């Protein structure tokens, strides 16, 4: 087996199993551990896998989203800076869909600075931030509550809820962004909810940190044709990516 074929089969194996050790791969392909280490180093340099001590994990596909409390502390400073930058796109009098998520949660904390907002939400954590604020008319989107995402309402009923409204802007978080094909999530019900947001807002604004780019999850929410803004962190290097020309990228400080 030549190296090119072996690399492809190693990638397939890691994608299916999500991770693999050097010993495991050496036994599977009947080659030395030294050769496997060289293979993994080359694949890691090409950003096709992530090297770990004694092996590797796949990085192309995001299969499972972390628990909410884990996501809330992960990249926390970046999420705050992204939220501050996104606030620049909120105008007094706006009607908004505010997606569920930990970065949009940080944006919700800042919306008291604006006047006369109408905001549709589907996230109980964000509801606790926004409820009772005199400057905000709050609408909670109905839907299904599933065990995996019990802090939000999702599914086809949630998607259909948004069709009753037409708003100025939707501020959205997504799990994966592949700039030549679209934005993705690993859960079908969550994807339905986000599709409803996209279909019923005039402007779609993604709030994503640099780690979300050039990866895929199972369910496509929408193509990049429907995205108007990407608000991201200062570590996003636009020289590495071919961002569609119609999308404005805003980088947080």
Folded structure, characterized:
The chain has 253 residues and is α/β, with parallel strands linked by helices. It folds into 2 domains: 3-58, Arc Repressor Mutant, subunit A (Orthogonal Bundle); 68-251, 3-Layer(aba) Sandwich (Rossmann fold). The protein has 9 helices and 15 strands. It has helices spanning 3-17, 22-29, 33-45, 68-73, 76-87, 102-108, 124-130, 155-162, 188-199, and strands at 19-21, 49-52, 55-58, 95-98, 117-121, 136-140, 144-146, 149-154, 167-172, 176-178, 182-185, 201-207, 219-222, 229-232, 248-251. Mean pLDDT is 88; it is low at 60-64 and 68-74.
Measure the end-to-end span.
Answer: 49 Å
- Outline: elongated
| C-alpha Rg (nearest Å) | 20 Å
How many helical stretches?
A: 9
Name of the CATH architecture of the largest domain: 3-Layer(aba) Sandwich
Fraction of residues in H or I helices: 25-40%
Secondary structure class reads: alpha/beta
What letter string, H or E per element, gives the SSE order?
A: HEHHEEHHEHEHEEEHEEEHEEEE
Beta fraction: 25-35%
Query: In CATH's first tier, which class of the largest domain applies?
Result: Alpha Beta
Low-confidence stretches: 60-64, 68-74
